[in-house]
Design goal:
CATH architecture of chain A: Up-down Bundle
Largest interface: A-B, 37 and 37 residues
Distance between the termini of chain A: 28 Å
Shape of chain A: elongated
Radius of gyration of chain A: 16 Å
Oligomer: homotetramer
Number of helices of chain A: 5
Number of domains of chain A: 1
Order of helices and strands of chain A: HHHHH
Structural class of chain A: mainly alpha
CATH class of chain A: Mainly Alpha
Chain lengths: 136, 136, 136, 136
């Protein structure tokens, strides 16, 4: 998304966010979509009765990705301790959803694609946590 | 976003959504981000007292774009009458936000970029409304 | 919710919102919860395969109620034309969800309770539309 | 909200959620509203330039309360480790928002009311964390 780069550069704050923030934000937006779409695809499957856990993990993950995405879209008066807690919760949600989707990946291709988006987003959440020390 | 094309193709429903749906979804995700970021940038401006209306239009527009984006991410048991009402509300929100942002575009570059995202999203909402007849 | 009355009274705007706004807001918050909980209860039912439409209507309705609830929580620089479009979309979502839930109400008590919350919220959305003329 | 008690009792799951879950959910819904309304009231204040941090804390807190509220509304295939991470992030958001609002409480009554809602919600998040052991 070109808009991410543009909006971050044009913000009146002193310095634009790091590439870790930008990449995590992009991953959150993509993962939130993938999880909403995967839950919907699971609901349409004949075997929906076997996909309850997947649908729940999708819902949790979409919610967390949207909220972390919104937090990363804002630079004014950022609370790093809170951002870290959000990134931690989002990483857990992504990993739990990826783990469940991977169990169905051979049967449901949408679960395979969703798992990839979740793993990617979890990776960027973890990277963000590594690069923002607790003391910041 | 590659995930949009992939997830739409892999959904168990009979036929993938039209390109009008796909384009509108992508525009919603980009516009939701731009509006959240623009509200935050406005809040950081020295002249925040002159940007109250802009911040409110941003908040409304981000909310509507997120909700329409989620609706367009789902194909199962779609209610076209409701989708049309959502697309109509989202188009209004985008046009109102674009109109306000354009008033500040020469002073605040983030408003200029945000207005572009809003105009693009409004265009795709209107196109979606044209291509989905009320009787559908 | 006591907070609704308190926050509306303490807002620096000239006049507090009408009781139509307050009642619609309270109904939105209750209906959004009921729909999220009903979708989850449907997902846990043995007959989940027959409840796909109900789960989709629940998701749409929860989304619209949350967004209208947020719009009604804000008084600054309100855009009445947009609020009307949102209230219209929310009324449609509530009525569609109520209609679907009522079909399962004798079998699933959570659908009966959810339908009541949806009918109540739709009523308050319609009342709000009656009391806010298009020309406002 | 009567709907919370009703929907929890009527869910097909084996046992209804504890009172800690119910109380935390109700507190989340009230706090999310209070924070959205407080941000809007701050935006309308003449001294909005001094309330940037408050508006940011409000936004973060409303987002986290909404997401935790949605998670607590669902009982199917609950992931307790994730719920704990969400409750922890929400508690931090509530405490940060309360702390900031309390600084303005003598000048802005809406900040005083919002701080009370945040403290109440933080208390219920902490109680939930105490009652759901990490090993669950």
């Amino acid at each position: 998304m070109q808009a991410i780069q543009d909006m971050f550069t044009l913000h009146p704050s002193a310095a634009p966010p790091s590439s870790a923030v930008r990449d995590c934000l992009a991953a959150c937006l993509e993962c939130a979509f993938a999880c909403t779409a995967c839950a919907d695809a699971c609901l349409a499957e004949a075997a929906v009765g076997n996909l309850r856990r997947c649908i729940r993990r999708n819902a949790d993950c979409a919610d967390l990705c949207e909220v972390l995405g919104r937090a990363l879209s804002r630079q004014t008066e950022l609370d790093w301790a809170l951002l870290r807690a959000e990134a931690n919760a989002c990483a857990l949600a992504c990993e739990a959803c990826a783990g469940e989707c991977e169990r169905h990946a051979s049967m449901h291709e949408h679960c395979r694609v969703c798992a990839l988006a979740c793993r990617e987003c979890a990776k960027h959440c973890r990277r963000l946590l590594e690069q923002t020390p607790p003391s910041q």
